[in-house]
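Entry:
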Amino acid sequence: MDIAFRSGTGADERVDALIVPIPAGDHGQSDASRLHDLDARLSGRLIELADDAGFSGKAGSTLTVPTLGLMPARRLILVGVGDADRLTAASFARSYGAAALAARDAGARSIAIELPRTTTLPASTLVDAAATGVQRALYEFTTYRGATRQGARPNVERAAIFGDGIDPTVGEAAMRRASAVVGGLFLARNLVNEPASVLTPERMAETAANVAESAGLTIDILDESALAALGVNAMLAVGMGSSHKPRLIRLRYSPNNPAEADARVVGLVGKCITFDTGGYSIKTYEGMLEMKGDMAGGAAVLGVMSALQALDCPVPVEATICAAENMISGESFRPGDIITPLNGVTIEVLSTDAEGRLVLADGLVDTARRGATELIDLATLTGAAVVALGEGTTALFSSEDDLAAHLIAASKDAGERMWRMPLTEELKEKIKGDVGDVKNSGGRAGGAITAALFLQHFSEGLPWAHLDIAGSARFPKNGPEGPKGASGVGVQTLIDYLVPPGM
């Protein structure tokens, strides 16, 4: 979609739909009300229509009204943004996403989007949130749709965001940020939506190489021979049953101005199981249906890395994507095997379906050894996290309060729900090995916690956070943040963590 920022208002634009924000409680009685202005242009009927429809300005509510030639725009879409004094970037983006969907459903190919005239949010935040909200709502994955399905519902092709009184340089800078964030988000969504027969570990490595070239990153890809020489035995064990062998993908971002770079080196580690059968601890049929998305953590890491140069991120980042396919063959690893990953902590395999933590064990250690001063991993790791928090919420575990607090703050700005979970010391006994140092499964009770405690063994004593995105990596239905399918969760939160809005 072609999207741009312009100063002024959109009332005189010849477009298919004009989107106008209406705060809660605005009934058009005040001369300063935008609803009052629009009512006058529509022969004094708009307020009556809004009242009849029960439109109150509630956040995310919409009302579509044909203008019948009384305005240049063919349709007017009112979007509720809620209490103007409580407006947040996340709620604002979600509301504009709902408006964009209403425009598309009405057949609009071109839209004009007005911003609120008075809010507590900075102008740059308003522009960024509107641009992000509209684009992510209208995302589609159409690679495998036939011609008939492709033409069934036209999408919005052109959009302009109008900010009355907003400095054009501020608006354009906010648009550049939104473009980088949305690009990373869509990259992650596209990868997760790909069939596993297409997105193999080798193809993931090829994609990462292409991203690295275009995004100014350094990349190093380790194949199975290099992994064996290095001693990355946990990843090798998980991937040995597949004809598509594992790849450890190392990515490095270095700030454009090293003299002003942050003293930290943030390490990002993504689980990237391109398909998970469960191995010999085989999943049920239903359990395998969405397992092409078991690489969502790795996709999110690549999405984040793709945006850092465009955002002039001041923090050096070492990223690791642990790509493997967990299949069944005569070469597959088995329950009862003992695996020795990079740091020598031996792992007793109880379940071959608890493979994500195995690849992360090697990925965390490797990232730490490459100079990271803090570690953040993302993984569709446990069904227990979904049971605990439901769909749409990421479970956060962390060894450091400050790191956890900063990530939660970033998630709120991004509108990605996150909840901190405990690292319960008493549960460590559940993963204490009988013949090895640790077991890769502590059983069903407290399963998300014992999985996090397992990973902590491989954090090398660094400040560390684990994001279990099993419940948030996929939208179960269409909504204002995107259609059913991959959500790209983690991309927006981690970008906001590394490059806070307004920097």
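The first helix runs from residue 34 to 41.
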